[in-house]
């Protein structure tokens, strides 16, 4: 029982992170119908920017940058978070403007290859010495190391605790708020209407006077901000960070991409649902079956979904026009 | 008659022909110019290549009064401290031998390439060392997976390779050019199992294993530990796996917690071990953790801090060893780098020194001669113990067990082979 609940909590926290990243994949696909493979690198950018800001900001309040005894004041943590969001959305904007917009009328395959190229470029620039370097680092704690809950199960020797750390709650709350804000933005605002129009038919949207380029830029900025948030939360939960070009980051991005596909790529709610499903399958599979195959569960689920419902769980079937 | 040649049109016809002719001419002249330019470029390129080649020849000629040896290691990447420590150990040995007049009157020069902890990079680094730099011998790597990537290249090219600290048995099985100066996994695994079974503080009968399934080092150590632990009367209650670089170990640790082990064996590298220790503490896992020499890094203490208190790992040497051989080395190392050497620095130092001693007695500096001399090594007094090569090019030597206390490893016991 204790272990089941513990696994559930972990799955919820990790699912939120997958969902945040998956949203970026799904939004870009929804609007431009191509997969932005550089998206996972924005997550890495978010993670490493958080680290770079943290080690520079902590000495300002008299804390040891690499191993603070106490967490910094909450306004500083919030400030770092906002700065990471801003810079990541700027990066998303620049990538779209410089790499993808010139190819707006080019075949889809060219754009896909460019996306892979941008991803490789970012990875290799990231591990240069004067950028982030190629060594792993430890993210200093920006939040207090509290346990909100510690419920005992069983008695005596076999007593076990379900632990709910603060960081898991924060991940859940922050990502929940961001997703809610995105939902409102897409379905309740003028910009959202324009976005959905562009996603429905770019040319008609342009004819109706919708500034298509601006809508696409904003899509990229929003998706990248969410990815940056995911990177920030990720390194707060897992403070030992791998170097920017490590294959583990690519795998993280791939799993989020699988989440978007499983939920129905192009569908915002589907991405969130897919994120949680992937995390549950991964965590419970690793706990109840074997941890040797934790990636196998995720990718088998992908194959299963593609066989049964190729459009994903919430995706709508695409009618071929003749 | 075609309309074109009708008298009325003859003028336009002529003008057409005239228009065409100069066109043809300019075209041919351009291509001629292009050809000239091309041949110029080709000529310059050829000149550059030949001059570079002759330069290369010159450096090879010049290298008769110096010996070049190569080192490939993870100077950056997830296991960066491994490569840096080893490189510092090697450089210390080189400085020492050069100060004493070099090897048979020739100065030794080191070329170090960074493989970023990536097997593909390791392969290209070693290829560059043996083909372009024409090194006499190769030192490296720490991680067994990377040594396994590089060893066939050295074997094929007839360049002796000494791995300072790859403990997987397969490394030296590649061929008669490949040596090492560290003990091997079967021994290390059995040392850990023996310690877990017999140490007063642990006395475990139930062990859980958490292994990095992508590293030959980790898998090898896990197999040997399992064999020895079961042979010693214990049981393995849980076997979990992760992949190098994983961040989230909660599923594995929750599962291990449910199996109620008395000790957890984690034969991984320090970056992952640090993460595992932090998350294990959060889950309330209090049983001691045990590992191999992959834990040996000052970074481990920095990452995990007190989460590793009361955990043990086997290593090649302890800086608390009072023997003058060890203390002398530590004094030298601290004098140069202002820090206490870890086991990998000591092994790098030993690897370089054993190579120099083989070079001194070898009839020539050819790969075959040096390798033959290395095979004859007996009773070489290294910092990490007395080294004698067995028939499989592996030294037989004792291991030490260290305990983590607030981020620093402290000496606990020495376990010799066959005990």
From TrEMBL, chain A:
Its main location: membrane. GO terms for molecular function: L-isoleucine transmembrane transporter activity; L-leucine transmembrane transporter activity; L-phenylalanine transmembrane transporter activity; L-valine transmembrane transporter activity. It comes from the Bacteria. Pfam families: BPD_transp_2. The chain crosses the membrane at residues 12-35, 42-62, 74-95, 159-182, 218-236, 248-265, 271-289, 296-315. One of its GO terms (cellular component) is plasma membrane. It is found in: Cell membrane. The keyword Cell inner membrane applies. InterPro entries: ABC_transp_permease, BCAA_transport_permease. GO terms for biological process: D-alanine transmembrane transport; L-alanine transport; L-isoleucine import across plasma membrane. Keywords: Amino-acid transport, Cell inner membrane, Cell membrane, Membrane, Transmembrane, Transmembrane helix, Transport. Belongs to the binding-protein-dependent transport system permease family. LivHM subfamily. This is High-affinity branched-chain amino acid transport system permease protein LivH. The lineage of its organism: Bacteria, Pseudomonadati, Planctomycetota, Planctomycetia, Planctomycetales.
TrEMBL record, chain B:
Belongs to the leucine-binding protein family. It comes from Planctopirus ephydatiae. This is Leucine-, isoleucine-, valine-, threonine-, and alanine-binding protein. Residues 66-407 form the Leucine-binding protein domain. The keyword Transport applies. Coiled coil: none annotated. One of its GO terms (biological process) is amino acid transport. Keywords: Amino-acid transport, Signal, Transport.
